[in-house]
Write a structure and sequence with these properties.
single chain; mainly beta; six-stranded antiparallel β-sheet; 6 strands
Length: 119
């Protein structure tokens, strides 16, 4: 799955000791750019992704896995990132806009204004 939006917050890195050795993870919050924006907290485990390359307000596309697990009768859901790609500065996350029909394809070529009337 992929989710696209802007980074709202990058939380501090967490580390600890487990039965398999030392672990580290870092969470970050992303806000989608749709009619009703949603905030999603995403986790990065280990050294797979370096969040130091990212800043708040960066536009990104994040490849994620979603997994739920049960513990003591309660369910917990994790959203884990496995790839993060920065969006180029030209992608502004707005819906597709129709092309401007009055602009000629070739700047040297004059074109009639677009007219879609049936008569």
């Amino acid at each position: 799955m992929e989710i696209t939006g802007k980074i709202v917050q990058i939380m501090p890195e967490e580390t600890g000791e487990g039965r398999n050795g030392t672990w580290k993870k870092q969470n970050f919050l992303i806000e989608t750019q749709e009619q009703y924006p949603k905030k999603v907290c995403i986790t990065v485990w280990g050294d797979k992704i370096d969040l130091k390359m990212l800043r708040e307000n960066d536009a990104v596309t994040v490849s994620i896995n979603i997994e739920s697990r049960e513990y003591n009768g309660r369910w917990y859901t994790d959203v884990k990132a496995w790839r993060i790609a920065k969006e180029d500065g030209q992608n502004n996350f707005t819906p597709d806009t129709p092309p401007d029909y009055d602009v000629p394809d070739d700047p040297g070529e004059e074109k009639e204004p677009f007219n879609d009337l049936p008569f």
